[in-house]
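User: Fold this; tokens only.

Assistant: Input:
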Amino acid sequence: MNIRKAESRDTEELGRLGAMLIRTHYRFDEKRFLAPRRGSEQGYGAFLGSRMDSRDDCVFVAEEDGRVVGYVWAALEPMSWKELRGPAGFIHDVAVEQDLRGRGTGTQLLRAALDWLRERGAPRAMLWTAAANHGAHALFEHLGFRDTMIEMTLEL
């Protein structure tokens, strides 16, 4: 397994994995998360591609036998009055192909992102995870994350 910074040549694979993330979250809660739609792969790939050149964002990919099988997107975030928190690193996405989970790929991706955030002076790292995503919860807790907030939704 090779973990490296994402490059423009990875955009299509990032889009494929991002669309997988959309479908997975939609299955968790169809009212809360975006519905998969035509063009999700291209749209998400273009979006993640736009983060690659940002000095405040990083995208790392996991590559196995020359194929991208996972990614992580993290960013430096300023203080937020809305979220009642100081500056932080934020893990926005971590995605690993379903059949490759449980082999340490997510851990390696997250460690790369956490190292990147630490090197840039982030005092802490935060993330959000779907309530139903028990596998992700276990991974995050294994790396030392703790519960701090619970998002609640009411349909209007």
